[in-house]
Amino acid sequence: MKYSIIVPVYNRPDEVDELLESLSNQTLKDFEAIIVEDGSVKPCKDVCDKYAGILALHYYVKENSGPGQSRNYGAERANGEWLIILDSDVVLPEDYLRSVECGVRSENGLAAWGGPDAAHPSFTPIQKAISYSMTSFFTTGGIRGGKAKLDKFYPRSFNMGIRRDVYQELGGFTKMRFGEDIDFSYRIVEAGYRPQLFPEAWVWHKRRTDFRKFFRQVYNSGIARINLMKRHPGTLKLVHLLPTVFTLGVIGCLLLSAFCILALLPLLLYSLIIFIDSTIRNRSLWVGLLSIPAAFVQLMGYGLGFIESWWKRCILRKDEFQAFEQTFYK
Prior knowledge:
Layout: E1 3-9, H1 13-24, E2 31-38, H2 45-50, E3 57-62, H3 67-76, E4 82-86, E5 90-91, H4 96-106, E6 112-114, E7 117-118, H5 125-135, H6 137-140, E8 159-163, H7 164-170, H8 180-190, E9 196-197, E10 203-205, H9 211-231, H10 238-256, H11 265-282, H12 285-315, H13 320-328
Parallel strand pairs: 1-2, 1-4, 2-3, 6-9, 7-10
Antiparallel strand pairs: 4-8, 5-10, 6-8
Helix pairs in contact: 5-12, 9-12, 10-12, 11-12
């Protein structure tokens, strides 16, 4: 097999079913799929059995250790020249692998690549709003594969590929519980390789289904950013500080509004920009409205996590495991 698709799974059999169905419809068939059950209470074995005669599919079960270690487990058992890392909550368009193949063939000496994500038309309005907040230039600066961006592109684990020999050379993913994919991308670059963006190799990414779960996700990402800075000095960029500045600005505007209602104007203007841009992109007034709270949750969740991590790691000087052992590490 030229490609080994590795998917860690934790209690998501329905998502695995959708992903495997999309894999069975690929126009390019030179791949194997490796599902690694990471200590799930709700296993997806029955789902995988359904596709056993349709796909070159391998199903493994291991004790829970987090997504990074599960990917390593799958990589050790892979046969492909290229390893493709996907999250279980993605669905692939039928020409996804053919787009990957075109990108691989066009780049001599390629070691790693990544692709963007998008919202499927069937996604709920909240999922589309969350997808907008994670991909818009007005929220994340386009760093997840957008054409306009404020920082370099680094592949993410929802859609990335790497030559198997390079994966083995770098030792795969570390034991970081969150941010492990960015850590891996940084190590790829530090080893002298240059990951490429394949804009045509995109996936539909389902995201979280409500704002509470979404807040927890981005809060953890904010925490991870300081841990990444500690592991990779010099990688903290202006774009990573913007959510914290935004968070402090929102708090400041709300406090000042008690004395002058005009202090809310910046927040209203930003909300209007998000509403107009999302409405145009999604062709839906309702998604445009939902994108306003999604943007605030995305930025402020990340910003608050960043502040907590900065306090614990930089002021209290706790190490990564001391600061977040109960939250992230088992």
